[in-house]
Design goal:
Layout lengths: L43 E4 L1 H7 L7 H14 L3 E5 L5 H12 L8 E7 L2 H10 L6 E8 L2 H8 L3 H22 L9 E8 L6 H15 L7 E7 L6 H14 L6 E7 L6 H10 L4 E4 L13 H9 L12 H12 L20 H21 L36 H12 L5 H18 L5 H13 L5 E9 L6 E9 L2 E9 L2 H18 L11 E10 L8 E9 L2 E9 L2 H15 L1
Helix pairs in contact: 2-11, 4-6, 6-7, 8-9, 12-13, 13-14, 16-17
Bound molecules: acetyl coenzyme *A, 3-methyl-2-oxobutanoic acid and magnesium ion (MG).
Length: 589
């Protein structure tokens, strides 16, 4: 059944051979309950960065890099770490030995190792664990019909028997070689019906039951039943249905940990995991930033941060996400995508004008709330447009939030000037300056850095010295009388002394300027012929800093002849700053 109508669909038939593919047949769970459940706590995490992640690297990790990854995982708080496939290579075997022999496994961390269900491999795997303080052996075999037929050439009963025999051999070698560990909680056992999602769910369940019959889970002797979407081939809700169905059918449920191991072939591993947890799973296996075979394993960083963003303790520390990312990039020799959720270079940035405007307003709103309550922003509940979490909570900075390109409006530019230079431009000045920046990005393309924005701002408003440059300022005022002003200015490089009177120094100054222009025009000076009258339309000022050496910023909106322009002046003296602002506007005319 489809619920899509074809209304207004103008699309044609694709030339691609879609008819070669058959849709997945979901397990039938009409009375499913998982859509009504919520994930309210972190699952048990297992990192398989050192196994599934490592086996899929172009350059598998060197022992030094493996150790760096192990230490990162431990420092982040992972308590279950799959450290390798020791029977596959001497490097993996030696790495497990190194961790054990050099006593590098913290008391509360359980390492695990993977093996196929083959006696020689199981024996070697168990040997790698001799002397380990705690460890889990993880055994797998594929239960999907395609694999039974093509890869193993076995019947379903023979397939089940591979798992049963494998489990027996793990127990036999562990009892022989691992001494006191076996029989205590420190020795764990995990079984994976590989390709679970393409297996008949009843059959996979029957194999897990048969394995549990051998292992005999009970209090203090759990079994981990890990249900991999080895290749993700269906929608996340289908996986959730399979997990709920499996959990309902499982005996000894209270002594079995149901574990998810999603891969990301359809790009929905995170969603599949989240729905699988709603469906009752206890545990999740994945890799940091989604490394692993093909499109990768489910991304443990995104899963943890998704919990965090819902106010749920993720039980791992991603407070310095850049450091985690750098370490993983070093270990895997692969970059994390700039748009990777929570961690990419670009994920706390906004390029488009409306986003920048909204973020700026949101951050200001939080600042105001914090100031009113006398607390830090970090103590307030997070709420900001377009930013699902506070970048500071993962060690990112607000400075990186806004980046300006040709799609940016006033918000981004204003944010950069405010956050980097404490200049709080009036709204119309923001609009004017953002157009200046946009002309620049339109003509030169690409992004403009905060340094370049500041250079453009200086050139536009602060550094112009013709036709006017302020040299000296003297004001006097007596109660009830107009302000008297004497200023020394260079007019086109020639020093002139102007005097004026007015309601305040700015008015006195524009009067003086207008008188100069009128006098020169009356005298027929061609340099003044096109110069129009200067009128101040709007004025704003604020301090850039506090204390005796504070700098003031003045912004004036002036009509200069036919044009309306903003000018900006900075000075320790507020009168001088405002006259400079008038000059800035006139010089732009
Ligand atoms: C989904 C996953 O990620 S599973 C884990 C994958 N990881 C790895 O394989 C790690 C690296 N592996 C290896 O280096 C090798 O596979 C080794 C060293 C472990 C074994 O190598 P080989 O002995 O050459 O065997 P190979 O890997 O080719 O395995 C294929 C054989 O194992 C059998 N086999 C495969 N998986 C299993 C299993 N889980 N249990 C039992 N037998 C298995 C196959 O049926 C095949 O048997 P056949 O040769 O009789 O047809
Ligand atoms: C070994 C199993 C758990 C695996 O990696 C998979 O099926 O993807
Ligand atoms: Mg896998």
């Amino acid at each position: 059944m489809t619920n899509l109508s074809n209304t207004a669909n103008q699309q044609g038939t694709s030339p691609m051979p879609f008819a070669r593919y058959t849709p997945f047949v979901p397990v039938d769970v009409p009375d499913r309950t998982w859509p009504t459940w919520k994930v309210e706590k972190a699952p048990r995490w297992l990192s398989t960065d050192l196994r599934d992640g490592n086996q899929a690297l172009i350059d598998p990790m060197t022992p030094a890099r493996k150790l760096t990854m192990f230490e990162l995982l431990v420092s982040m708080g992972y308590k279950e770490i799959e450290v390798g496939f020791p029977s596959a290579s001497q490097t993996d075997f030696d790495f497990v030995r190194k961790l054990i022999d050099e006593d590098r496994i913290p008391d509360d961390v359980q390492i695990s190792v993977l093996t196929q269900a083959r006696e020689d491999l199981i024996e070697r795997t168990v040997d790698s664990l001799v002397g380990a303080p705690r460890a889990t052996v993880h055994l797998y075999n594929a239960t999907a019909p395609l694999f039974q037929r093509v890869v193993f050439n076995v019947t379903p009963d023979e397939c089940r028997n591979i798992a049963v025999r494998g489990t027996e051999m793990v127990m036999k070698y562990a009892e022989e070689r691992l001494g006191g560990l076996v029989g205590s909680e420190a020795f764990g056992y995990q079984y994976s019906p590989e390709i679970f999602t393409q297996s008949d769910t009843d059959f996979a369940l029957s194999v897990c039951e048969a394995v549990s019959d051998v292992w005999q889970p009970e209090a203090g002797r759990e079994i981990i039943l890990n249900l991999p979407a080895t290749v993700e081939m269906s929608t996340p809700n289908t996986y959730a249905d399979q997990i709920e169905y499996f959990g309902r059918g499982l005996t000894r449920r209270e002594h079995s940990a149901i574990s998810l191991h999603p891969h990301n072939d359809r790009g929905t591993a995170v969603a599949a995991t989240e729905l699988g947890l709603m469906a009752g799973a206890d545990r999740v296996e994945g890799c940091l930033f989604g490394h692993g075979e093909r499109t990768g394993n489910v991304d443990l960083v995104t899963l943890a941060m998704n919990l965090f963003s819902q106010g749920i303790d993720p039980q791992v520390d991603l407070g310095d996400i850049d450091e985690v990312r750098r370490t993983v990039e070093y270990c895997t020799n692969l970059p994390v995508h700039p748009r990777h959720p929570y961690a990419g270079d670009l994920v706390y940035t906004a390029f488009s004008g409306s986003h920048q405007d909204a973020i700026k307003k949101g951050l200001e709103d939080l600042d105001k709330k914090a100031a009113a309550l006398g607390v830090e922003v970090g103590e307030l509940p997070w709420e900001a447009p377009y930013l699902p979490i506070d970048p500071k909570d993962v060690g990112r900075t607000y400075e990186a939030v806004i980046r300006v390109n040709s799609q940016s409006g006033k918000g981004g530019v204003a944010y950069v000037l405010k956050s980097e230079h404490k200049l709080d431009l009036p709204r119309r000045a923001q609009i004017e300056f953002s157009r200046v920046v946009q002309q620049r990005t339109d003509s030169e393309g690409g992004e403009i850095t905060p340094e370049e924005i500041w250079a453009v701002f200086r050139a536009e408003y602060l550094d112009r010295e013709t036709p006017l440059k302020l040299n000296s300022v003297h004001t006097s005022s007596a109660a009830g009388e107009k302000d008297q002003l004497t200023v020394g200015v260079y007019v086109d490089g020639e020093r002139r002394e102007l005097t004026g009177a007015g309601n305040g120094p700015i008015n006195a100054f524009t009067n003086a300027l207008n008188e100069l222009v009128e006098a020169e025009q009356a005298a027929g000076n061609p340099a003044y012929a096109a110069r129009g009258e200067v009128r101040v339309l709007d004025y704003h000022e604020h301090a850039l800093s506090s204390g005796g050496d504070a700098i003031a910023a003045a912004y004036v909106e002036c009509a200069v002849g036919e044009k309306v322009l903003w000018g900006v002046g900075l000075d320790a003296n507020i009168v001088t700053a405002s006259l400079k602002a008038v000059i800035s506007a006139v010089n732009r005319g």
